[in-house]
Write a structure and sequence with these properties.
The chain has two domains: 103 residues, Rossmann fold, CATH 3.40.50.2300; 102 residues, Rossmann fold, CATH 3.40.50.1860. Helix content is 49%, strand content 16%. The chain is built from nine helices and seven strands, in the order βαβααβαβαβαβααβα. The strands form two sheets. The chain has a four-stranded parallel sheet with strand order 2-1-3-4, with helices on both faces. Strands 6-5-7 form a three-stranded parallel sheet, sandwiched between helices. The longest helix is centred in the C-terminal third of the chain and has 17 residues. The chain starts with a strand and ends with a helix.
């Protein structure tokens, strides 16, 4: 199965290649950092950013068995495009939300970028049937600044520290909303957070096989 990935961070290429190796998936990558930069500059998704993202997803769908949008900020565009393409188009964090909520218990969802908070809240609330009673969506202070500065080790350390703090505060499940956060999971001491790359790729492979 050929899965085409649309990223907004170059570093996510290696993250998804590593996850794909374990699943036997064949990936192609397109990186468009400008899309997230434009959304951040505007304080969130705009019609122009959504239109550009949709056009790229349509283009990727022409040569793949499934398309995976790996940016949580842009995630809401994927289901809109999916209804108009012959192949599955998925947002990577949708599978994460389903997995996290299926475990039950008190859930904390960590975000690094401020523009990811509201799309993540909406995604997890929808997966929970519209309820937000058990959802604790948290922004990790300073993490995104570290990521944008290229300080990936510090970025992961900050995320891991926030995950451990969430466990200490009573969270039974911690989910790392953004794919770029996945490397922090191995640094956590209080538990093993859920991450999106492997879950998202597995969902894309399953959707492609079900066509």
């Amino acid at each position: 199965m050929a899965i085409a990935c649309l990223h907004t961070a170059e570093s996510n290429v290696a993250v998804f290649d590593a996850a794909a190796a374990a699943l036997g998936a064949n990936l192609t990558h397109l990186v468009r950092a400008d899309l997230l930069q434009a959304a951040e500059a505007a304080g969130g998704m705009t019609p122009a950013v959504a239109a550009k993202t949709a056009a790229l997803l349509h283009r990727l769908a022409e040569g793949a068995d499934a398309v995976l949008l790996t940016c949580s900020t842009l995630g809401p565009v994927a289901p809109e495009v999916a209804s108009r393409t012959p192949v599955p188009v998925l947002r990577v964090d949708a599978a994460l939300a389903r997995e996290a909520l299926a475990t039950g218990g008190r859930l904390a969802v960590l975000c690094a970028a401020a523009t990811t908070v509201e799309p993540t809240r909406a995604l997890f609330a929808a997966a929970a049937g519209g309820s937000q009673d058990k959802l604790d969506i948290r922004l990790v202070p300073g993490a995104w600044d570290a990521f944008k500065a290229g300080e990936i080790e510090r970025y992961h350390a900050l995320v891991a520290g926030a995950a451990d703090a969430a466990y200490a505060a009573g969270a039974e499940v911690v989910a790392l909303a953004q794919a770029s956060m996945a490397g922090a999971a191995a640094l956590c001491r209080a538990g093993r957070p859920l991450t999106s790359p492997a879950a998202g790729l597995a969902a894309a492979l399953q959707a492609a096989a079900a066509r």
